Amino acid sequence: MTAYTKLEDHFRRYLVLGQAEGVLHWDMSTVMPSGGSETRAEQLAVLKTTRHALLTGPETADLLESAAQVELDDWQRANLSEMERQWRRATALDEDLVEALSRAESACEMAWRGARPAGDFAAVLPDLNVLVALVRETAAAKAEALGLDPYDALLDAYEPGGRQAEIDPLFEDLEAFLPEFLGRVLENQARRPAPVLPPGPFPIAGQRALAHEMMAALGFDFDHGRLDESRHPFCGGVPEDVRITTRYDENDFTSSLMAVLHETGHALYERGLPPAWRHQPIGLARSMSIHESQSLLIEMQVCRSRPFLAFAAPLIGRAFGGAGEAWDEDNLYRLLTRVEPGLIRVDADEVTYPAHVIVRYRLEKAIIGGTMEAADIPAAWNEGMKGLLGITPPGDGDGCLQDIHWYDGAWGYFPTYTLGAIAAAQIFAAAKSADGTITTEIAKGDFKPLLAWLGDAIHAKGSVLPVPELLTQATGRPLDAGVFKTHLEDRYLA
Amino acid sequence: MTAYTKLEDHFRRYLVLGQAEGVLHWDMSTVMPSGGSETRAEQLAVLKTTRHALLTGPETADLLESAAQVELDDWQRANLSEMERQWRRATALDEDLVEALSRAESACEMAWRGARPAGDFAAVLPDLNVLVALVRETAAAKAEALGLDPYDALLDAYEPGGRQAEIDPLFEDLEAFLPEFLGRVLENQARRPAPVLPPGPFPIAGQRALAHEMMAALGFDFDHGRLDESRHPFCGGVPEDVRITTRYDENDFTSSLMAVLHETGHALYERGLPPAWRHQPIGLARSMSIHESQSLLIEMQVCRSRPFLAFAAPLIGRAFGGAGEAWDEDNLYRLLTRVEPGLIRVDADEVTYPAHVIVRYRLEKAIIGGTMEAADIPAAWNEGMKGLLGITPPGDGDGCLQDIHWYDGAWGYFPTYTLGAIAAAQIFAAAKSADGTITTEIAKGDFKPLLAWLGDAIHAKGSVLPVPELLTQATGRPLDAGVFKTHLEDRYLA
Fold first, then answer.
1. Are residues B201 and B118 in the same domain?
2. Residue B53 burial by Cβ neighbours in a 10 Å radius (0-12, 13-18, 19+)
3. Partner-chain contact A33 B226, CB within 8 Å
4. Do A42 and B279 touch (CB under 8 A)?
5. What is the per-residue pLDDT across A13-30, written as a single tens digit (0 to 9) for each?
6. What is this structure's pTM?
7. Chain B: closest CA distance from residue A18 (Å)
8. Does A216 contact chain B (CB < 8 Å)?
9. Are residues A84 and A123 in the same domain?
10. Nearest CA of chain A to the CA of B33: how many Å?
11. Closest by CA position to B135, among listed B364, B474, B399, B345
């Protein structure tokens, strides 16, 4: 074996152990009884430190050095570069920190599960303080090893190459654009008839059957994946076995259905990753913003569009035995594109969603930068919401406790949601302009032209290209908010 | 840290990674879509080799030697001895063999899943030949390292200290006893009215609710465990999160219910293991025969007894809205203790069950001993069944393909079923003679006196004692078939 093929074997083991960790996470979120939490935390801590040790052993550095000397093709070269990136990030941390962080994440997440329904931020604060201290330590260690600002060092784990220096102007642009735009959208919306929610209840069995039908139409392969239930919808698993989840509300089928369509977008990306590079770093999804672009492209760009509803409205009516105006395409379209400032990020429309992200982004930069403490989060949160959306949460349950991210250790993740929304608009526009049949086929329930284009331009690329290059090859330019804004204007001011 | 505490930390990691492997197995058997098989095989192979490397590193040998020099209490001493046992077994194999075996097990099991419904032994034979060659290689390597006969070296993994030299006379005794005894049982049974299966169908929701009710009555804690469905019932998980499974037949509730009660016996053992020794070798269940003794004690000794049915018959009737003679205690007792030679081990009554095990035990000894090849299994199987039970399977699906064990690599496991049946009778008799209220309380649906006794005598002992010593302390003597035979005579010739 050459140094390079030894590295491939090494990283295969590393990534496959990470897949095992993913199975444990899926299980924890969908089926694990509450009493299993502590043992599961132990299992995750041991798996994480075992993986860390595998990557940071003395052999890896030597192999990386040797492999850099030999002739490699473009994909191998990109793979080697991703290996080095992952190795650098791992060696920045010692094993004790990896273990302490894993345990603190599990403990804080457990505390949060109790604190959230009670809206009791004080109950989670002691665990959160421990976690924040370890996250800061992690950020500092990675910052030093990678020569980055601490926040960027965290962000880089989710968004390789992502930097505040590029996000800040994008977000400032949106902050300047959105408040005034929102006012015009609400005015425009007020001139149209308000949509009505079709009369429920919507039995869960019917919602589940409809979800399966829609997933199948989009190309989800149930021999290679599942739909289950969890408190928060997510997509997990591996390309050969993609696991998505949703949660059902008998009084409103739209929230569950849109979650399913969103997660199906993630799942289709995973399924389309390059099979020749399974269990290798470049075989993985490129970044969290690109992942989110694929889920939002399906959910926001496709499934909340008129062409999609031409196909879907009759299926929705049939699923619940409904007929009449409330079930027609036009009402459903207005229902699924209704704009309304609200407290909850995951329920937000695409016009107000960036504000939710910007609030979180500011706060997490301040926390990681050390200019704010965890105890100050509730007040800063409420102030941010008031400033950006004009509303104040009545309690922390609908405020700073609503998302799991900070409490399970995902600091530096939030901006990728809005980067993904911007990318989704840019990518979908490029797809439609490359293949004029995409929209007309969607109206017939045929997603193959769209998926074929996405497969080639995004999915099958894995991580072979940096994000700006991937976007440039797919859409003609790196990320900018232009198409996103045009999309919002077209949809909400028409 | 002393050498001993370092070893505790080392084995904690090793065992906790094994738990992660257990989660992957549970998932594979209950929810994994078929397309996930290959990736799952990869995950299991990597986890197994990673665990193997953890145990066989140079440090472990030194630590074991140092720890043997220092003062330890009895439990620590026993723990150290179990560590050494596990280390010796692991170091007998090199990593390539561990990986090859894991992959061959996954491949052969996958082939078997297709071959079994089709009854097509030829379809699984190529994979089985590969697997048998690797199992023989494993047996030879372990035999050499441990100074054991190759079959004993495999058996010892499931039944520490178990040897053919002790099993053979026990099984010969049963072989001499059972055929004549079976004749008398069938004669006796013919003189009583034949039981009737209460009229079905039995909706699965009702069977599931009844199973939950019975499990709760027995003390199964649903905050620390689950009941799910799988092709073959099993008990997996960890003491804090015990996962049992069953499968439902709408035409017969007894098979599913008895499987649930059997697996609940396994689960209660796991739940009762000593919490102070979690993630340590002596904190684990003692052996497969002791595990099976706990499941059979609950299923066969308790739940197929008259006192249990005094409690359970009304619940069963209520679960399915049934009333009348078919649902009464007396009919259900005759139904659940009906003896009838059949083809399928898992459906066998306790009188004919040992014959199923003896057929398999003979064959696996011959295969491991090299006097028989995998290709000869179907003919030898049919001959064995004809000789011991007087019946010949119409095809391999109901013959040598019926059990997963050989096809997923569990060679040397089968005798523990009958050792467990013998132990169950011996342990239950000791429990009843130690506490006269056990039987009367069972009739009222109160299992606490039984569980308290089992908890002290068996469960909380973990692996601190060798099997013969555990049985001697609990029942006054090591394993012998006397009480088992008396139990059969009392129940089936009364």
1. no
2. middle
3. yes
4. yes
5. 999 999 999 999 999 999
6. 0.95
7. 9
8. no
9. no
10. 5
11. B364
